[in-house]
Design brief:
tRNA (5-carboxymethyluridine(34)-5-O)-methyltransferase activity; Methyltransferase type 11 domain-containing protein; transferase; AlkB_tRNA_MeTrf/Diox; alpha/beta; SAM-dependent_MTases_sf; two-stranded parallel sheet
Length: about 250
């Protein structure tokens, strides 16, 4: 089989390779025996929950080494690439254990969704991954301006660094004088909006949802503060919207 993972000078990196890949098993075993002899007997304890062992020796490790591990994982293995390229256009697939997402863009004619237990690796996979994105009625739920700007910056990082990559963001407007809510200029921008649950046989329950009501021009300001560029913006049905890019 072709597609042997890249050779690394750092033996600990070699030891950390995907042992599931046939071409790397021998190298992994050798490196592990040579460099980890002091821990050779740290095998799963029958009396210890396997989840706890995996948390310590798999999940926590990937969280710690994520940036370095990601820097060594950039070239798709040929057989995997061939499999992805053989899928019919428009089909939907999953990459379970996607790591930094290196396979997500191999075949752009399919819709491939990635998931991974390592939050640090998934964060790396999200960057530069999308040609477009939408975020509708989300940013206004963050309770400080800095958090709203940070959220927009995170959205922009998801876009590929190309001129035609776009994000569409919608938020509730303060200026809703014609709506049943009655908010308008001069009203408090930070508010709790009740949601009443009525279920047969159960007492009525009311939940208070936080909203920041954006005033005219504020969303564009937040996009620019987050490092983005406004392409187009406007108002529609009690919402401000913006189309922006990196």
């Amino acid at each position: 089989m072709t597609g042997r993972p890249e050779q690394q000078q750092d033996v600990d990196t070699v030891a950390a390779r995907d042992a599931h890949h046939p071409a790397s098993r021998a190298t992994t075993a050798t490196a592990t025996t040579t460099t980890m002899s002091a821990r050779a007997h740290d095998e799963p304890d029958p009396g210890r929950p396997p989840e706890a062992y995996e948390d310590a020796h798999v999940h926590a490790v990937y969280e710690a080494i994520a940036p370095h591990f990601s820097s060594t994982r950039h070239k798709p293995w040929p057989l995997v690439a061939d499999f992805l390229l053989a899928q019919r256009p428009g089909s939907v697939g999953l990459d379970v254990g996607c790591g930094n997402g290196k396979y997500l863009s191999v075949n752009r004619s399919v819709h491939l969704l990635g998931s991974d237990r390592s939050a640090s690796l998934v964060r790396l996979a999200r960057d530069d991954a999308a040609d477009f994105l939408i975020s509708v009625a989300v940013v206004h739920h963050l309770s400080t301006r800095q958090r709203r700007q940070d959220a927009i910056a995170a959205l922009l990082r998801c876009l590929r660094p190309r001129a035609d990559a776009r994000a569409l963001i919608y938020v509730w407007a303060l200026e809703q004088g014609a709506s049943r809510r009655g908010w308008d200029e001069g009203c408090q921008q930070d508010t709790l909006v009740p949601w009443v649950m009525r279920s047969k046989g159960a007492p009525e329950a009311t939940y208070q949802r936080y909203y920041h009501l954006y005033k005219k021009g504020e969303l564009e300001e937040d996009v620019c503060a987050a490092g983005g560029k406004v392409v187009e913006s406007g108002y529609e049905k009690d919402n401000w919207w913006v189309i922006c890019t990196r």
